[in-house]
Specification:
Number of helices: 14
Number of strands: 17
Structural class: alpha/beta
């Protein structure tokens, strides 16, 4: 059967390929789920089986955004503990999170995914680590929500086995045993992980953090991931308090602890990595360990400014993350492009910290690298998957900014005229085509209120 083609033309294009190729006015041809061609000027004449032509005048076409760190369940606990640091914030919210169930997890995932997808995310991930006893099939609910939304998805199947009685922060009834966590994680990999080129669902092994899991869970989790051929994810070096915790408990800093447990490598990515010294950055660069940079959450919790410029110069793979919506209430990745640039310019490198194009690369190709999918997504190149976003830049909000990439990164949030995932339309004229946004809003409000009532009742 002949390929069905979509032609997008007359738009500015930022390919984010290895040479940062850009076209002031160009075209992309999509054949079924793949990018067939990209170039300057008009699309080739005589294309067969063209089912749609999109006039991109006044728009910028980029690769779809790739989110590398999130906690979907937090959508239904937004706006709480707004003046806390990380540890106090966790202590305040764990009693609520420990009461989530399958219905809540599904609604929260739907809300998180809808907000991201509407803002240009074509590949999402969720680090879900709260599995209260008797809460139902939380992983299945989250994966189902991603499938309905139509984005590519990595579930980082998290776990915690260090409860309050063992010196951890979460309540004991919200943690799993070592054996249960490993068994459930392996079962999730076996059931859902797809390693094909155009996979829509992948699984990573993801114990929560050094202060909520045992050393044995870290070690055996790494062994499990490598035996199954999947990636590894956890939180690392987020706060000064975490570094102190690691030194008191393990006698070493976070990076050395991770290395001792098998948690540095090209199949690993860490969230945050705010408090990294030169030796830490060198270890990440040497091993190819990736970083999910979450500037808004780091600012919201007062965690600090990650050394993104130094990481990039050292060769560390870096992507962007929304982080949980209880510490980044907007839940949007496209705002992280701007915030990454602005926050990093407050650090040591000041105005030389990041450029607009480096920020775009973090949110696209950098994220694809971190998730291990740079061969399939993250840039506009022939043969890659047709995950594309067409941003509208011809309104009042961007009318006097000549450079379209600068307009996208530093200007107001741009509407999404079209978002494709594997050639399938997910957003049209700034609205989702796959789910009912109003229904999702009603569902998330209902589940948030139910969770609040359950928590208040004790």
């Amino acid at each position: 059967m002949a390929a069905s083609r979509i032609v997008i033309e007359n738009c500015a294009i930022a390919t984010v390929d290895a040479n940062d190729t850009e076209y002031a006015s160009g075209y992309v041809v999509v054949a079924d789920n793949l990018i067939e061609s990209v170039g300057a000027g008009s699309a080739p004449a005589g294309l067969e089986n063209v089912v749609r032509r999109v006039d991109g005048t006044g728009h910028l076409l980029t690769p779809g955004l790739v989110n590398t760190h999130h906690h979907f369940y937090q959508w239904i606990t937004r706006g709480l503990a707004t003046d806390h640091n990380l540890f106090n914030w966790l202590v305040a919210l764990y009693p609520t999170w420990a009461r989530i169930d399958e219905s809540m997890a599904r609604a929260a995932a739907q809300g998180s995914l809808a907000m991201m997808a509407r803002g240009g995310v074509t590949t999402a991930m969720d680090h879900h680590y709260v599995y209260p006893r008797g809460s139902g099939d939380l992983s299945g609910a989250i994966i189902g929500a991603a499938s309905e939304t139509g984005v590519r998805f990595t579930l980082a199947r998290g776990s915690m086995d260090r409860g309050e009685s063992d010196g951890g922060l979460p309540p004991d009834f919200a943690v799993e045993s070592l054996d249960d966590a490993l068994a459930a994680t392996e079962a999730t990999v076996d059931r859902y992980h797809d390693d094909s080129f155009d996979a829509m669902t992948q699984i990573a092994v993801a114990p929560c953090s050094p202060f909520s899991v045992s050393t044995e869970l870290m070690r055996q989790g790494a062994e499990l991931a490598r035996r199954k051929g999947v990636r590894l994810h956890t939180h690392g070096s987020e706060t000064v308090e975490e570094e102190q915790f690691c030194k008191e408990l393990f006698g070493t800093g976070p990076t050395d602890y991770f290395e001792s447990t098998g948690w540095l490598g090209s199949d690993v990515w860490m969230a945050h990595c705010v408090h990294m010294n030169d030796s830490d950055i060198a270890a990440f660069a040497r091993t190819g360990t990736g970083v999910a940079h979450c500037p808004s959450s780091n600012a919201r919790l007062g965690a600090g400014i990650a050394r993104v410029t130094d990481m990039l110069k050292a060769g560390v793979p870096v992507g962007l993350g929304v982080d949980g919506t209880a510490s980044n209430e907007s839940g949007e990745l496209h705002t992280e492009l701007r915030n990454a640039l602005l926050v990093n310019r407050l650090g040591a490198h000041r105005e030389a910290a990041l450029t607009a194009r480096q920020a775009l690369r973090l949110g696209t190709h950098g994220g694809a690298q971190v998730l291990g999918r740079a061969g399939q997504i993250g840039s506009i190149e022939a043969g890659k998957l047709a995950d594309l976003v067409l941003w509208k830049l011809d309104t009042l909000a961007h009318s006097s900014i000549a450079d379209p990439v600068v307009a996208l990164i530093l200007g107001a949030a741009a509407p999404v005229t079209l978002s494709l995932v594997g050639g399938r339309t997910v957003v049209e004229d700034n609205h989702l085509t796959t789910v009912d946004e109003d229904a999702v809003a009603r569902s998330t409000r209902t589940e948030a209120r139910r969770l609040a009532r359950i928590t208040a009742a004790g």
